[in-house]
Design brief:
The protein is an alpha+beta fold. Strands 2-1-3-4 form a four-stranded mixed beta sheet, with helices on both faces. Helix 1 packs antiparallel against helix 3. 26% of the residues are buried.
Length: 126
């Protein structure tokens, strides 16, 4: 299964993770708490999805476990003040065929931030 995190398509198949997550272990976590984890991750590094893809994959998988219809999330800095308040989150459910097309584009280097922002998030690329 594919998951779009900011502008990167991740394969979140649990069998491909270095350390698979146990869904039961995380069932008590709320969607808000998982969003908070994402904000913390992107507060530390705005390019966390690229600089630490395994951590990004785990976050994407947690989001999907808690909200199964969601297959796209964006965490973006809204101000330069730092802290969790400076990171906002947005979630979407995208057509699986569109996800596969974007993954194919990513594999050949044709998927970039501007294209994802225009087609998915509808905001200007930073």
């Amino acid at each position: 299964m594919y998951f779009l995190l900011n502008d990167l398509i991740l394969d979140i198949d649990a069998t491909r993770m270095m350390q698979p997550l146990d869904a039961d272990r995380f069932s008590a976590l709320s969607a808000d708490y998982i969003a908070q984890l994402g904000k913390e991750m992107f507060t530390e590094d705005v390019q966390a999805h690229r600089n630490n893809p395994e951590r990004a994959r785990r976050l994407a998988y947690l989001i999907h476990l808690k909200m199964p219809r969601i297959n796209a999330a964006q965490f973006f800095v809204t101000s330069t003040g730092g802290g969790l308040e400076s990171v906002d989150a947005s979630f979407k459910s995208l057509n699986e065929m569109a996800m596969e097309l974007m993954f194919a584009q990513q594999k050949i280097g044709q998927l970039d931030t501007r294209k994802v922002d225009n087609e998915v998030w509808h905001r200007m690329a930073a």
